[in-house]
């Protein structure tokens, strides 16, 4: 027998699902949430911003997220590990990528150089290795770039001179070696080094 209660319950579920589908921002910041990042977020076509900062999330970033049209991903201060998925390079709408203070390892995927709209890239305090990808030379909209406290190798790349919009550059204890390129003086917007 179909009761009014069941009708109301089903209606509440439908409204909740509609709300989640139309949602453009998912902020679950600072709730001390344990667990893993859900690949199912890809089923929310209007989702633009993901902020799971300041939690206890572990595991990896789902490669499925690379099919989304996000503008911002913030996973600051969690327990995420593994390699940064190259699929994130498909999210050309991304303007902010904050992966700071986790346990990501391996090389930074060169595909992230395709994120031409990126203004903020924070990869500090991880276990990243290797050279910075040459594809990063095309990230001309960067205003904030942080890679300190990693295990990179090689020298500070000359291509940072291409980042004319850059306001903040943090590379201390990154593993990169000097000298600081002399053309850094061309970065007239730089206020923090």
From TrEMBL:
Chief subcellular location equals: membrane
SUPFAM superfamilies, A to Z: L domain-like
| Membrane protein topology class | Single-pass type I membrane protein
Please give the GO cellular component terms listed in this UniProt entry.
membrane
Cross-referenced Pfam families: LRR_1
The alphabetized UniProt keywords are:
Leucine-rich repeat, Repeat
Coiled coil region boundaries:
none
Is Magnesium tagged as a keyword? no
Q: Listed GO molecular functions?
A: protein serine/threonine kinase activity
Q: What is this protein called?
A: Leucine-rich repeat-containing N-terminal plant-type domain-containing protein
State where the protein is found.
Membrane
